[in-house]
Amino acid sequence: MNQTGQNIILIGMMGTGKSTAGSIIAQQLNYTLVDLDAEIEKAVGKSIPAIFEGEGESFFRNAESAVLERVLERQKLVIATGGGSVLRQENCELMSSKGWVVALTADESVIIERVRGDGNRPLLAGNLEARVSKIMEERKDCYRFANVTVDTTGCSAHEVAHHILTHYRG
Q1: Which of 144, 148, 141 is nearest to 168 (CA)?
Q2: CATH number assigned to the domain with residue range 7-169, chosen from the 4 options 3.40.109.10, 3.30.950.10, 3.40.50.300, 1.10.340.30
Q3: What are 137-166's pLDDT values in tens digits?
């Protein structure tokens, strides 16, 4: 059983549907949806690509950790994290202690199709297929701390949200 107001934290590779399913879940629970990347952009005053280009990935990851910590001081949130938020152990521990963590997964080919043409993903610059494959391989064990894992391959956002809510409520 989950405590009242417990945050739902969505983790997983880019393109697994965190923001889309998160929006539906937030609406159904009357929670606030927080897109962590959007919060980082607000805090830094630059877009994600501009942060990567101007300050680098290390600066971005520091900002991500600081924003995550600040956001998790609140309750009744559905948080759609960036795919790399799990790269730091302290972020994983914080998420585990401050919410109910759901890992979203999808087949590599599905992720590639979902993110194709999205210019707001600096880590995918260059050969998209090779970059997605490399990132998936590097992060394959990073999502294992989640309370539940949902494969979004072949599912609509509403089906994913329903599956998550079924586990959350029960």
Answers
A1: 148
A2: 3.40.50.300
A3: 988 899 999 999 999 999 999 999 999 999
